[in-house]
């Protein structure tokens, strides 16, 4: 009996392992160059890819090409999430906590490396190059904004530290937590319930108060739910195959990409 329970648990965990388009699937410069941005915006960090457009092809910085970071100038270095400008030279990015800066430039410098800071070093990888955990977050303000969608883990401030709590539904959440998990939940009629397209989502990346019409994962069955902005400006359920060039990849939870030859939005793989 115990074995069976363990086995089902493993199955449940694996079922949330969402596959997204590979860099090599992305046929347009627009989809390729915005891949990281779109993944981070929809918190779709199941398998982060660092895509780069090169001579008409979309390559994966982590798999297809070894970027010699050490030869790069500061500006190019700063734009490549696989490199880090540190100590006056460009180095291969390792992990956030390897980077330490003077107090007065710490926060901004960590931000430029796509990390948060903990007051002493950089910590917590904002774009998921390494494993993210709530426990790495040192400040209440950062903690209370964070939801790790791909782990279904909400970060809670316990008075002195940031601690992760894994979720399997929305129902137990307070109004404040419900808003923090608005990638999957919505506060309606004084309770926290599963999100729909109509609820929209506030992005942690975008200016406060701006509501996005992102596609999302159903918190209970881990299915991708596709949404799009209607002509009337409402966020509604969508058929990803009907998405246009600009919205195909970004609005499909990175499951579909635009094929310029066919002028169609098609599922990857
Ligand atoms: C940074 O530079 C200092 C002084 O040159 C050196 O001691 C230190 O090892 C360097 N650190 C890294 C990570 O390159
Ligand atoms: C910040 O992170 C570093 C590296 O993980 C750790 O050694 C240090 O104790 C942390 N400091 C605080 C204040 O959390
Ligand atoms: C908060 O969490 C930290 C780390 O788990 C723990 O050491 C601490 O005792 C907790 N504080 C409270 C007030 O629960
Ligand atoms: C809100 O809850 C009340 C009491 O449970 C119920 O009567 C009402 O129909 C609900 N409204 C909506 C919009 O679900």
Automatic annotation (TrEMBL):
Signal sequence, start to end: 1-15
UniProt keyword terms in alphabetical order: Signal
Superkingdom to which the source organism belongs: Eukaryota
Name recorded for this polypeptide: Uncharacterized protein
Biological source species: Paramecium octaurelia
């Amino acid at each position: 009996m115990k074995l069976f329970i363990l086995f089902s648990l493993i199955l449940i965990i694996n079922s949330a392992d969402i596959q997204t388009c590979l860099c090599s699937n992305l046929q347009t410069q627009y989809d390729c160059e915005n891949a990281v941005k779109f993944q981070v915006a929809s918190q779709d960090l199941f398998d982060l890819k660092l895509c780069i457009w090169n001579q008409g092809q979309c390559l994966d910085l982590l798999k297809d090409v070894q970027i010699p970071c050490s030869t790069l100038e500061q500006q190019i270095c700063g734009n490549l999430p696989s490199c880090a400008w540190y100590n006056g030279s460009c180095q291969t990015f390792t992990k956030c906590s390897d980077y330490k800066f003077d107090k007065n430039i710490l926060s901004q410098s960590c931000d430029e490396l796509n990390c948060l800071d903990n007051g002493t070093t950089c910590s917590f990888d904002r774009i998921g190059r390494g494993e993210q955990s709530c426990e790495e977050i040192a400040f209440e303000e950062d903690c209370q904004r964070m939801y790790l969608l791909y782990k279904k883990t909400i970060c809670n401030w316990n008075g002195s530290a940031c601690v992760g709590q894994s979720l399997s539904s929305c129902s137990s959440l307070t109004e404040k937590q419900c808003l923090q998990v608005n990638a999957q939940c919505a506060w309606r009629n004084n309770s926290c319930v599963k999100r729909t397209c109509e609820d929209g989502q506030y992005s942690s990346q975008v200016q406060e108060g701006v509501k996005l019409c992102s596609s999302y994962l159903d918190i209970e069955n881990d299915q991708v739910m596709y949404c799009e902005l209607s002509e009337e400006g409402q966020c509604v359920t969508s058929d990803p195959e009907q998405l246009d060039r600009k919205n195909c990849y970004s609005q499909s939870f990175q499951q579909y990409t635009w094929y310029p030859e066919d002028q169609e939005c098609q599922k990857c793989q």
